[in-house]
Amino acid sequence: MSRGDFEASNGDEFADAEYDNAVFGEAVFGADEPSDVELDAADLSDEVGENEFPPQLSSGDNYIAGPPSGDPDQPSDEEERARQEQGREELRVVESALNERWPETKIEPSLDRIRALMHMLGEPQTSYQVLHIAGTNGKTSTARMVEALLSRMGLRVGRYTSPHLQLATERISIDGGPVTPADYVDAYRDVAPFVDMVDQATGDAGPAMSKFEVLTGMALAAFADAPVEAAVLEVGMGGSWDATNVADAGVAAIGPVSLDHTDYLGDDLAGIAAEKAGVIKQGAVVLVAEQEPAVETALLEHAVRMDATVARAGSEFAVLHREIGVGGQQLTLQGLGGVCDEIFLPLHGAHQAANAALALATVEAFFGAGQDRQLVIDAVREAFAEVSTPGRLEPVRGAPTVLLDSAHNPHGVRALANTITEEFAFRRLVGVVAVLSEKDVRGILEALEPVLAEVVVTSNSSPRVMSPDELAELATEFFGADRVTVEPRLDDAVETAVGLAEHTDQPDEPLSGGGVLVTGSVVTAGDARTLFGKDPA
CA dihedral in degrees (163, 166, 168, 169; nearest 10)? Predict the structure, then answer.
């Protein structure tokens, strides 16, 4: 399908006249527009001294410039610290309650429970427009890019992603940042009575609501309460029976599909793709990243059954050019509405450039962009320049450089290794690796081996982590015993890796150029962020 055909079939479906001028054309208010209010400086000159407000606007309770210093209602530093600690304690109580439910890795494929919860809550997911992000890798990065673009276009946006790196509040984002612990606790308390009702109605016929189902209900309800105008939902696992699929998305983006969660999704790529295609709703628009032929066939077949409009990477949208730069890359993207050039993306890797093209097309589809109908290019540039994706080749230290990456399956690790090879010039790179036991550990280690001089195997905070000794046995198959070190604690592993990275074989060899890569799991990257003093984001 050409971009012109795309516009003809979808140009009016998602475009909202309220946003047209701001998004596609000139600013809503021009700089030369006359003012309806005329102020006479002489009228104020007798009342207003330099740096003062008129008495009628600054006396009594009319503190238009903010409360005066020493306001008794302003909490002291000690009171603020106490309030924050109380919020963290309440968050721990909520997380403890949620952890008594089935974890995200234990699933009874069904939408019945989340549908029942949404019905009891008054269908909050219908009060805003939804963009759904599916696939195996790159979902969170793509979701963050979509969020940034929508926000820059003037919308109030909610984003729901999983899993979190450090703190559960990261999963629910409103206005570009995680909700506060207090807001997270309030969201739980708002839905908890209804969750209990769903559990009671289910009885012995099936399991109680899972942790992920409750979290999804919390997010969808919080977005309605905010309220947001658009919600970006990342699929947790699969597609058809993922709890996020209770929402009817007018636009769905499907990133690269590969093997992961094979205990639930199987090891047949076409079958996995068919499951993920379940997020494509009747008459929707679907944006498809570059895929293996069997995957693309499965996705397109489902799209045809749903009478959905399809735009594909390499056809309707694409990365036309990328140039590696300091701190990221410069891109030229082909969007649904034309070419967007001079885009700086502060992220590394060809995979992130592909995510950017997918995100751009997704937002264009949402607004009804097409031939000769392009988003404001300056707004697009500003949005991409502000994107951040914690735990994705994130630098947390220099001399030696320490990078964190949450890659946790062979496909993701291969993209990571390719980026290291293409964009970094380490004299010696040492890996710190901790992996969850249910993952394809051999595939991960095999993909890492070409770029690592040595590997330090360790543990993370997940109860599902593979023991360092078992991981060392597997690592030895690929690295050899002389390149594998075991450190049970992550902090010790990082310290050891730093020493190995600074090691030189010759006395006159420079110490600079060494690096450490901490990877293997989202949990590993999150634990390392905390270790290096990074705030949840």
Answer: -120
